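Sample intake sheet
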Amino acid sequence: MTGIAVFETVSAMRAAVAGWHVAGEKVGLVPTMGALHEGHIALVKEGQRHARRVIVSIFVNPTQFAPHEDFKKYPRTFDDDCAKLVAAGADAVFFPSVEEMYPAGFATRVLLLGPAAAGLDDRFRPTHFEGVATICCKLFTQSRADFAVLGEKDYQQLKVVTRMAADLDLGIRIVPLPTFRERDGLAMSSRNRYLSPEERALAPMLHRVMQALAGRIRNRDDLFRAVADAQGEIISAGFELDYLEARHAETLAHVTSLADGPIRILVAARIGATRLIDNIAV
């Protein structure tokens, strides 16, 4: 017993949503891969601010993992997730099987350009956003929700999905929510549980370095020198740095100074076996 309505098929979810819409109730969707933490619950609470009904999808999506990544060991904590969602007051969980989402003969993907080809995470995970966009497109059309709440921690992903929903006229509004953080600044993530105690103690450094970099950019320091200094600080601390960059906050295009528009600092770095990503506004 989960204590919450669980839909395992698209037809069951659509029937419930249709009933809610007939009753004049707005419906929000919170897409997740489970292993829920306080940041996910904040997404649910944000959904409740905008709608009478909130569905949380829990689906570890195989198409967004490369062969060498952690699909098989990705944490699966369904009963605990449901208990958290009951406490949060969510209305239902969409918990489909891989076969339900990708039936035999499935042969379609979403082709992406724009923010998905910005040279950030796409450089290191070239098939990732195609998988994300495909599953989000399916979830949006399957649920027929009025809006979806996405966190800003996966910032490039947020921009990719927002652009896709607009470009494909999916009729769903994307509601972003700022990153939830631990007290020491580390961005909440399901993957944080992989960190050893020593790695966990070092991990918040990424946020501190980004904050210092943002201050230098606001003070009109040379952007390229400031970014290079921050990159060197992260590497010297023992991280394997994929990227630390200052980009245009909307398009993710390269910038040379504050004059180019609003700036977002984005980082991806490995510590031990765990890859951490984060971002902040300047």
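Comment: The beta strands are 5-7, 27-32, 53-58, 92-94, 147-151, 173-177, 240-248, 263-271, 274-281. The domain at 5-177 is CATH 3.40.50.620 (Rossmann fold).
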